[in-house]
Design a protein that fits this description.
237 residues; alpha+beta; seven-stranded antiparallel β-sheet; three-stranded antiparallel β-sheet; 26% helix
Length: 237
């Protein structure tokens, strides 16, 4: 078990959680850096090297959207402690990351704590067309690629037809420059950030795992980026 813990959850994630629970997010607040940055990034680098097929995937048609979300991220990284240059970035942990525009999701995976999923509208639903997903919480990327929102959330008991329509309206309605955010919170028996299959133990366990999820519209491609910042802390009940 790889144990990487934050000191505490952000205050705004301590309130009761009700689905879908979305709220406006600051235009630049879809990326954050916290005290677990260096440890989480070291683990992400290992996962991308050892399990590339499990944590990285991009449809060829989604390359422009992936390049766009990297471009958007680079614009807001400097105040977070990053030194952004034309061909590389110096990160808060002093790593130098080259900017590879042919592999933008892998590049983002080396820069940011957040996982990033790309969804593009096909027909009446948004479909998962790419992701860097190093810290899955009880789902496998290979099971979800090229699938619509309704199929992605199929195992979630609370995700009924009514909630599915509300979530799709949210993805349809989010506007460029006006992202949204939500969070979830569950108890886990294992603190490991990489859990494509949740360890047995139900809703009991030593650790609280919470995801700060942001939803933003990319203005040029019109794709939606769904970012996931994962926090793990000792069980808060």
């Amino acid at each position: 078990m790889t144990v990487i813990l934050q000191n505490a959850l952000p205050v705004e994630m301590l309130v009761p959680h009700v689905l879908p629970g979305v709220a406006p997010c600051g235009a630049d607040d879809w990326l954050r850096v916290d005290e677990a940055y260096a440890a989480q990034m070291a683990y992400r680098i290992v996962l991308m090297a050892d399990k590339p097929k499990e944590v990285l995937w991009l449809s060829p048609d989604a390359l422009p959207a992936a390049q766009e979300v990297l471009h958007e991220a680079l614009g807001i990284l400097p105040p977070l402690g990053f030194d952004v240059q034309s061909d590389h970035v110096i990160c808060p942990d002093d790593r130098r990351v080259s900017l590879d525009w042919d592999d933008p999701l892998r590049t983002m995976g080396h820069l940011m704590q957040q996982d990033v999923c790309l969804l593009e509208k096909r027909g009446t639903e948004h479909v998962l067309t790419g992701a860097v997903l190093c810290f899955p919480a009880s789902w496998r990327l290979a099971d979800k690629v090229e699938r619509p929102l309704s199929a992605i959330h199929d195992p979630v008991a609370e995700y009924d037809e009514s909630l599915g329509r509300r979530v799709q309206r949210m993805f349809d309605g989010v506007r460029a420059g006006r992202p949204l955010w939500r969070f979830n919170r569950l108890n886990y028996v294992d603190a490991d950030l990489y859990q494509p299959v949740r360890k047995a133990g139900g809703n009991t366990g030593e650790f609280t795992r919470s995801e700060r999820q942001c939803i933003l519209r990319l203005p040029r491609s019109n794709a939606v980026a769904f970012t996931i910042h994962t926090y793990v802390v000792p069980n808060i009940g």
